[in-house]
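User: Okay, second chain of the day. Same drill as before: sequence in, structure tokens out.
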Amino acid sequence: MKSISYILIFFSLELKKVFCLLNKAEYFSIRTEIINEMGLIEINNFISPNRVLCIVKCLDRKECNQLYFNRETQKCILFSGFSTKNNLVTKQSALLAKVFTQNSSSECIKETEYWSIKMNSCLPCPVTFKRYSLNSFSCYHMSQNDMKFFEAKSYCEEKSAFLPRPKTSNERELIRYLSNNTKTWVDSFIDSLGEVYKWGDGTNVTGFKNGQPGNEGDNSSRLNQNVLIISDLCFFDIEYWKTFKTICQIF
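Assistant: Same drill. Structure tokens below.
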């Protein structure tokens, strides 16, 4: 039985508490400690009647790495990224960070296997795909050739896979490693101006570079840049006809 412990470390001026939620079948990257300062990217902001509901909302979104809750205003803010240096914590508020642990018995031993949340077991990666420690729940394949966006998308789909959907910091770090820190296509595009970029599973893309998406071009009243790449852990919009690194993902 897959067993993942989600430990929420509560930083406050008044006290520290540890919340453990066991056996929650959700697709999260595994992190045993807060490794680096990535900054906080807001992904949701709402009123929550209590801190527990705020925590649950964060657990339900795999891209949520950290949350803020103010018990006086009942404001809950969900963030992607990690930070331990901030000015959010007051006597009336708290900043909580996800820290993940995993029982060794639930890990797939071979790098040609990945843990399927849906099947609750190890499954073999397709031929030419490989699992990496930064994301035990997916297998990845790297093309030898750079491609245009829709060529890359079709290339992955022919392998019953898709372009990467790096929602968590670990996944973004992995794509940077696999691409040797070069620009890489990700699984998102739009068809019209003003349309919101979404992943292939329908969830919104977060984690854009400042000023992005920018739709840069000679005429900003038309759609010039309609697809996304990842570079230096952030997303940019760009023209579909350019050629970049192609990585395929499956889970």
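Residues 81 and 199 are 18 Å apart (CA to CA).

User: Thanks, on to the next one.
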